[in-house]
Design brief:
seven-stranded mixed beta sheet; alpha+beta; single chain; seven-stranded antiparallel beta sheet; about 25% strand
């Protein structure tokens, strides 16, 4: 645990990618295999289920610290992070028990099934066993908030250096449903022929937002142009007469997307399709709001299947007749994909249409059609590109349409978390509705560090009331809010919900009387339906 804590601290204290890689390489070179596989799992987001409720942790930490509960809550409001608050308040023990990372994680899993009193005594014993830094990391692990500023690509690079395996191969080996408590590092990183999982997906190839002029990327004839669809990026895998569906976030979605199950009798074994899973009815793509209804249901009823049927808009073929074909040029993979979809001739699988455009200057017209078609923009893919791993620059670009925008006024603020714990950075905004300001969305990003400090100072000077960690403020600061989509919502007082809201800019040139109204947003909602 001490070594893992030192790894976490070292990664947290540097922003240099080479230093991060070297720190991880040094850790993996000196740690045992059990701790190594748990470290890999945690760094790549495979966290176990939270074993103890937040309310219990707060109460027990308050008891151990010997302070009133209100003081704990006030401290939590200031610090903004539960794990750090507990680490700062509870007394440190003079005894320091040596436990390995794997021992700690195995106990965290076992304690999940214990009684409340057993959990309390177990937690007290751990809180009395660690140094301050170890205590902080341990608290992060049991609160489910363990995150560290390192990308998966850097993790793969570090493991590649440590174990002398290509980083793209590492990325593929770490995909799928493996669990650190039941996997051996040697087997996980061994040749796939001896430990292959039929459900294992391939690492997704991700595009960068287009940020270079067209003159820098060559002739348009060398590029494949498609729509950028607004659904769930996924892979449909058919192997050994079974279907497996993975999302880009490495979530196994097979049980949620049950209409794809017949594909095991339609697609050849050894087929992996890459595409966008979309709600599709009456020859039209439905809104992402309908997609969310499918995702949020544990059990899919016949009515849901009828009301919100799905399809996959297929745009790549990664495995063909059991062979990994990612190293083939896109144009060759596309030809095989077209043949497969044509032969299959099933409404569950649709071929992503290619767009015809003879000049870069005409491309913006195609892009601007996207919102009317339920798309986010365009995808530009070089025809000779292989299927890479992760986010890469140069071969695949996404060119999204400009977001919707609305001017709104700040009415509530709350402290942020982590490095922003001492700043008011979480904002609630309002629009006009018949002369009344109505809250309609929240936003947490978009301002510079300098602007955040300026807004924080203003909030502290212009607070009207306090509601726990939330402050209501004078309705004076106007911001332009950008968002990707809009839907009707019975859960919001405004009756409207925005998709991916964020602050575009601070409108110091506008007064609250000039902001948008609910009627403006309702008109926008009607125009996109």
């Amino acid at each position: 645990m001490k070594a893992f804590t030192e790894l976490y601290s070292a990664l947290d204290q540097t922003t240099k990618t080479n230093e991060k890689v070297n720190v991880m390489v040094n850790y993996f070179n000196h740690i045992n295999s059990k701790d190594a596989i748990w470290a890999i799992a945690l760094l790549t987001g495979r966290r176990p289920k939270r074993p103890i409720k937040t309310t219990d942790m707060k109460a027990w930490a308050t008891e151990l610290a010997g302070i009133p509960y209100w003081l704990f809550e006030d401290s939590y409001d200031v610090v903004g992070d539960l794990a750090e608050t507990i680490s700062l308040l509870i007394p440190l023990s003079e005894s320091n028990v040596e436990k390995s990372l794997s021992e700690v994680m195995e106990e965290i899993i076992l304690i999940q099934s214990k009684t409340e009193e057993e959990k309390k005594q177990w937690l007290f014993s751990f809180w009395n066993s660690f140094s301050k830094d170890e205590l902080f990391v341990f608290n992060k692990l049991i609160t489910g908030s363990f995150r560290v500023g390192v990308s998966q690509q850097l993790i793969f690079k570090a493991l590649s250096k440590t174990y002398s395996i290509d980083d793209k191969v590492i990325a593929h080996k770490l995909m799928g449903a493996w669990l650190p408590q039941t996997s051996e590092l040697r087997e996980l990183l061994s040749d796939e022929s001896s430990s292959f999982d039929d459900s294992k997906p391939y690492p997704f190839y991700l595009a960068y937002q287009l940020d270079v002029p067209f003159t820098d990327i060559g002739s348009i004839v060398d590029w494949q142009i498609e729509r950028k669809y607004d659904g769930i990026r996924g892979q449909i895998i058919v192997r050994n007469n079974s279907v497996h569906i993975w999302s880009r976030g490495e979530e196994l979605m097979t049980d949620k997307f049950i209409e794809f199950m017949p594909l095991k009798n339609i697609l050849p074994n050894g087929t992996v399709l890459d595409g966008e899973i979309l709600p599709f009815k009456d020859k039209k793509i439905m809104s992402f709001n309908e997609m969310q209804k499918r995702i949020g249901r544990k059990n899919v009823s016949k009515k849901t299947l009828n009301d919100i049927p799905l399809c996959m808009m297929c745009y790549d073929l990664l495995e063909y007749n059991g062979k990994d074909i990612r190293q083939l040029a896109l144009i060759a993979r596309r030809k095989l994909l077209e043949e497969l979809i044509t032969e299959t001739n099933n409404p569950l699988l649709k071929l992503s249409p290619l767009l015809d455009c003879n000049a870069w200057e005409n491309l913006d017209t195609l892009r601007n059609e996207s919102k009317l078609l339920g798309c986010e923009g365009l995808m530009l893919k070089q025809k000779d590109s292989i299927y890479e791993t992760g986010r890469r620059r140069g071969k695949w670009w996404k060119w999204k349409v400009d977001p919707y925008t609305v001017d709104a006024v700040l009415i509530y603020a709350q402290s942020g978390h982590g490095r922003r714990a001492n700043l008011y950075t979480d904002y609630t905004f309002a629009i006009w509705d018949n002369g009344e300001l109505v809250p309609f969305t929240k936003a947490y990003s978009g301002l510079t560090d300098k602007e955040l400090i300026e807004v924080d100072n203003w909030i502290k000077k212009n607070t009207i009331e306090k509601f726990g960690p939330v402050r209501s403020v004078k309705a004076e600061l106007v911001f332009e809010i950008a968002f990707e989509g809009i839907n009707a919502s019975s859960r919001h007082k405004s009756g409207i919900a925005l998709r991916f809201p964020r602050i575009l800019r601070w409108r110091k040139d506008k007064k609250k009387e000039e902001i948008n109204t609910k009627e403006d947003l309702l008109q926008l909602l009607n125009s996109v339906l």
